Structure formats: structure tokens, C-alpha cells
């Protein structure tokens, strides 16, 4: 048997849009569209898809791709001139040929660097100079790491402020069999109740109706346990204090044009985010936000989220 080497390939995706495919030696892979720097596929070494993408997703600008990992920048919620979730997810990014140094771990050998800079049109709706660099890493073990570095490149002394999220759509076998651990007892803003603040009660989160919550100052590690599939996703975040949990459920699903009526049963968004306290960058300053996700058989997962508690698969 010949050992395969990891690879990074630029090819054409749906509707001829540019797509980068990362492949690791054990068989895992990741696909990223230049449109939105949008990760649309993350497969483990058995070739199983771990991200949800709607069958109705539209791979055509200006619509953001429904599913995968849209990047919400420069705002999470929709206010002012800016659209809901900002514009980074529907701009054409470029491959960053000469990214500034980023310390790399030896298991992070398969990656692509992308960059977004404002156009004159963008400047009209968000008048700020920035460079947004995204590194997408597929580790040897098949984990997917997203590292965003946003720099204020203004020469006129103007700071800017933004909010941010990695809007990650995980694929699950049956939403009613899913449990999220790590967010219990946390404070959250409920988007379904005009962002009123509540405290999560009791045990791990389970799902039986629409949910749209922003957990504030959530712990860095969150587990999404898919009982039916016996798979646990572990999300690790740095520089991103908040975490959004979203599932539209049946009624809202029907109202979303690029989302199938029953698809809510097979997805859950858990999103590392910075929303409650927007980030301000002065000229020359840079912000970094990282999300790492891994998928493990539930029985293998023993990393306690809380030192007093161990998860059972
Ligand atoms: C979630 C928000 O992150 O994204 C929801 O909390 C929103 O309020 C959902 O409905 C989907 O947003 P969009 O813009 O991709 O349809």
C-alpha cells in the first residue's frame, strides 16, 4: 500500500465557484469555497460527512450558502446598513499567498490561508479598512480548525468595532436524540424573546422546539452528543466568549426558502461567537478568534467539561 500524502487542491465547486479541498493521509477531508471562505464539507477518515448543508442550498452570489460554516462578520445581528450576519459570508475571498507568520503545530500541516479586504462598494456600507485572514486547518487526526485574524489597516486613525461568529451547522442523526453539554447553568439572551436575558436551568440541553440563544461567556469547550450516531462533537473556542445555539424547528424551517421542511431534524448550529461585547480594534491592532472541532465516538469521549463531571457516551 502506498502512503498518501496530505494535499491541498484548488478546483471548481458548484456553479463553477472556486473551491479548495484539503485532504489528510488517513482519509479525512475539508472543502472550502472562496465564496464566503465558507467551509461546506468536513469528512472523517471513514468519509462520513460531519457538517450539514441543505439540499436546497444555493451556491450562487449574493445568497450565502445554507449550511457548513458561514462566517458572520462584521456583525452577527442585523442592524443599520449591514445585513444579518454581515457580508463576509457572501464576498469572494482570495488565497493569501503570503500570510504573516502564524505559529504552527506539527499536526497542522494541511491548511489554506484566505484573505478578505474591503472593496469600494463594501466601504460604502462599512467604511473601515481591514484585512481579514482566515486559516483553515485539517489536522492529521481529522480535526477542523478555523483561525481568524482581523487587522485594522486604517491610516486615518479610525478604530472599528465588530461582532463575529463561526455559524457551524453540525449534522446530527435526529435532533431529538441530541444533547449539548457545557452550557448548562449559563446565562443567555433569547433571540425568540427579544433578547431577554435568562439563566439556563438544570442539566444538559436537549431539543424539542425552536431554539435561538446566545450563551454569554460560555466555557471554551462544548460537547454535542449525538446518541443515535454514538458520536460526540467537541467544540473548542479561543477569543470567542459567546456561543450561539440555533435550530429553526418545523415552522421556521418552512419559512426559510433555502432549507428543506424536515431538515431541521438533522442539524444543529453551535457557533463560537463574540456578540455581547463587540470587539474594537484601533489602527494597527489585530484580533484573533479560533474554533476547533473534532468528532469522536461518544464512548471515547472522556474529556470532562467540568472537572467534577465526566461525560458518558
Ligand atoms: C442564527 C441566528 O445564528 O442564524 C438566527 O441566531 C438566524 O436568528 C439563523 O435565524 C439563520 O440566519 P440566516 O441569516 O443564515 O438565515
Automatic annotation (TrEMBL):
InterPro entries: Aldose_1/G6P_1-epimerase, G6P_1-epimerase, Gal_mutarotase_sf_dom, GH-type_carb-bd. It comes from Vanilla planifolia (Vanilla). This is glucose-6-phosphate 1-epimerase. Belongs to the glucose-6-phosphate 1-epimerase family. Its EC number is 5.1.3.15. Substrate binds at residues 66, 84, 89. The active site is at residues 167, 271. GO terms for cellular component: cytoplasm. It catalyses: alpha-D-glucose 6-phosphate = beta-D-glucose 6-phosphate. Pfam families: Aldose_epim. The keyword Manganese does not apply.
